């Protein structure tokens, strides 16, 4: 059974930082490429950041490069997303995902956590 549980969302001001965490079952953490997606009101869900199953490679959406960092915490079995220099356009529901070989092949989703950035 794969379980993904997000935490860490909240309301912050532009320029602030926030750290999201995704607690993953051992199977998800070890077998899958793990990523973060987001969905703003009235928009489609989009890829934000991803990390390979081995942790050896990461990828980011252009809109967050240089501001967001994804990492695996092997001691806690979590996938963390450090978000710095937040902008109002980062406001969205953020979802943790376990994916196959590509980010379009998401196998499991978390329930989501809300991030609101005020200007």
Characterise the protein shown here.
This protein is about 5% helix and about 50% strand. The chain has one helix and eleven strands, in the order βββαββββββββ. The protein has one helix at about 25-30; strands at about 5, 10-15, 20-25, 35-40, 45-50, 60, 70-75, 80-85, 90-100, 105-110, 115-119. The strands form two sheets. Strands 2, 4, 5, 6, 9, 10 and 11 form a seven-stranded mixed beta sheet that branches. The longest helix is centred in the first third of the chain and has 6 residues, at about 25-30. The chain starts with a strand and ends with a strand. The model has no long low-confidence stretch (mean pLDDT about 95).
Instruction: Give, in order, the helices and strands.
Output: EEEHEEEEEEEE
Inertia-based shape:
globular
Which structural class is indicated by helix and strand composition?
mainly beta
Tally the helices.
1
Instruction: Profile the largest sheet.
Output: 7 strands, mixed
Whole-number mean pLDDT: 95
Distance between the termini: 40 Å
Helix % is under 10%
Rg from Cα: 13 Å
Query: Would you identify the regions where 5 or more consecutive residues have pLDDT less than 50?
Result: none
Give the percentage of residues in beta strands.
over 45%
How many beta-strand runs? 11
């Amino acid at each position: 059974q794969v379980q993904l549980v997000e935490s860490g969302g909240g309301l912050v001001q532009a320029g602030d930082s926030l750290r999201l965490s995704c607690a993953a079952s051992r199977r998800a953490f070890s077998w899958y490429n793990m990523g973060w997606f987001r969905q703003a009101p009235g928009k489609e869900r989009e890829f934000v950041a991803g990390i390979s199953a081995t942790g050896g490679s990461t990828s980011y959406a252009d809109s967050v490069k240089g501001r967001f960092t994804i990492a695996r915490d092997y001691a806690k079995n979590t996938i963390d997303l450090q978000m710095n220099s937040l902008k109002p356009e980062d406001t969205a529901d953020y979802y943790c995902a376990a994916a196959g070989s590509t980010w379009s092949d998401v196998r499991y989703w978390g329930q989501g956590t809300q991030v609101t950035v005020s200007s």
